[in-house]
Amino acid sequence: MSSSENETDTSVERRDSVEKVVGAPSVASINEKGVIVDEQYADATIEFMREHDASVPEITPQEERRLRRKVMFTVQVLTFFINMVLYMDKATLSYASILDLWEHTGLTQDKYNNVNTIFYVGFLVGQIPGTWLVQKYPLSKVLFVLIFLWSILTFLFCTAYNYPGVVMLRFFLGLTEAPTIPILTTTNGMFMTRSERAATMPVFYAACMASPIPIGFIAYGVIYAKSTIPPYKILYIIIGGLTLILSVVIWFLYPDNPASCKLMSVKERVWTIRRVQNTQQASIEQKTFNKKHAIEALKDPISWIFFFFFLLQQLANNLPYQQTILFEELGNVTNLGSTLVTVASAGFAVAWAAMTCIVLAIFPNTSFLAIIYGQLPAWVGSIAAATLDIHNSIGMLAVICMAANVFGVSWICAFGLASATAGSSYTKRQVRNGMVLVGYSVSNMISPQLWQSKDAPRYIPAWIVQIVLSFTVAPALTSVAWYVLARRNRERKQLLEQAIQEDADHGYVKNESGQIIEVNKGALDMTDLEDKTFIYPL
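Structure for Yct1 protein, as requested:
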């Protein structure tokens, strides 16, 4: 038992320390059932559920199927397209490199590496304010402001005429992107059950991997556009326009949480909250920062295992941005050919993500295994890229395509597990998300620097780092996390069975007037270490 578990917590009180209040259960009955949480530290949807829960009947199997489809085709599709457009914005620099950007701004291979690094400097700087914004303010408003600013920065690339200008714009792009992934993944977690969330995480990341398909064809059209405007500026205008339209959609449709979702009826909102709290054992949203939960996140060894996974695995993440340049350096590959091969590579990655989704749906609780096998094509492709004859253009194109995108499936599965294994605590989930994204940022600052012009055209040092650290050591670390959490689960199952027998799947919240109200246990916002009946998803 960690020392943090023994400390007195003002937000979580044992029932025997609670005074009896008017209209509340007796102290004795409370003592039999668990803990009391002050309302400010409980789920943000409690007031909505207090108003509507009693009037909404239990969901039927047929209604649940309809609700599941609605979530998938509204919330999931919305977050998918937001993620895809953002990744298109980020990847635009790679395509602009073959559309005269370098000639107009004075970029070279090493300067291009620096520009990619500076993006993640901004991403790293944005983690602390980003985590605070996500915890403090409505998700929809934060996301709207970020996407609107992103569109403005994308348009401003048309005005950049030198290397410092590109560096500055990339820094601010990274700064504004920092909170977006936690917002999107948090939203998905608010609407889906544990098994649905695990199975659809690769779909969410497939948005990133699919983005080269639309942007590839856009770039193909730009190559043949007859205009006095430099082609890279046309590309940035198109992508900036799409991002601006996206910000308008977010303003009108993006939900803060299920209780405020405009795409659902009141009944559907209640059913969604019930499903999530019952299956994820987690709160929906919590807007008060819990210092003790933040400290626990920093002390928990599982947090650091995920941190080092992202630190090592993301050393390979410059490869998707580097591949168009690698194709050019192979020789006999035109800009059009490079674009089409990149599109094919994205298609392969999307197919790999779809296969992973099917496996996770058929075999629940295998997310840790998906992290390991999800990297196999990248591992094989990287070894082949480092050993094949470079004059074997077709073979090199194929193995680079294998290596370039599919490891993102492991990335998103790990990101989902990092959050899902933190218990119901909103603060612990957000702090752990911040930790792993710091590792992600630092790794991506280093990653572009592995591709030095002096190592062209083979870039053997970069391939070796990816093979050893990103695709071998990093997934091995997750095996350690799996072992620790599986052992904890074995110890907790007896407690869980006892809780089910005693009907102790609920808890109590004390409001400002001192009244104690019975709620679903998931609304108590406890961490995995506080709630000894919490079972970790594996």
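The chain has one domain: 61-491.
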